[in-house]
Inverse folding.
């Protein structure tokens, strides 16, 4: 079972904006730089690590050359895979894969992402939480960006910016909506 968090944010992040995001995650214990090897790591198409200077990883994300798969580190032997992609018309998506982590590690990574979203609330579109990892990327994109509910599996919950709820009326039909009081509202389906 693959648990993941997908943060949808407005606009494409350039290198300095992505560096700001990673600097914030470092404060919560998630770092691009491997704690022992001192480098960043991308994952190639077969999942093999490609070691690069951290600055190069940040540069590649900022260039939006295409989808990238990178690693954030909780410790020297515990990583959180992060898929970074851009969805037209103007949305960057960072998907943090939490499968294989202990409950404590999952909580730490989730808290780090939640703190990041609070810091970046003005550009946040949504945070999608899928505990079972059953929802396809294209269904998630249609849900968050176009307000279309998937025909198949749905994510466990989505946190939308509260001021954007009126933009997704179809998503709210039959859903339980809870205002979190921090600028976000959680939407869940039965």
């Amino acid at each position: 079972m693959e648990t993941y968090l997908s943060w949808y944010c407005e606009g494409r992040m350039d290198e300095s904006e992505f560096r700001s995001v990673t600097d914030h995650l470092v404060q919560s214990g998630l770092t691009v730089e491997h704690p022992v090897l001192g480098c960043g790591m991308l994952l190639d198409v077969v999942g093999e690590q490609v070691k690069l200077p951290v600055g190069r990883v940040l540069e590649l994300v900022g260039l939006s050359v295409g989808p990238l798969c990178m690693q954030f580190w909780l410790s020297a032997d515990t990583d959180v895979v992060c898929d970074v992609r851009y969805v037209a018309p103007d949305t960057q998506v960072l998907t943090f894969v939490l499968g294989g982590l202990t409950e404590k590690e999952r909580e730490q990574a989730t808290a780090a992402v939640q703190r990041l979203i609070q810091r970046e609330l003005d550009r946040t579109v949504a945070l999608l939480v899928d505990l079972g990892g059953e929802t396809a990327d294209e269904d998630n994109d249609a849900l968050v960006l176009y307000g279309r509910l998937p025909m198949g599996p749905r994510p466990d919950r989505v946190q939308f910016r509260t001021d954007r709820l009126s933009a997704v009326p179809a998503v709210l039909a039959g859903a339980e909506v809870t205002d979190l009081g921090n600028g976000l509202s959680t939407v869940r389906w039965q």
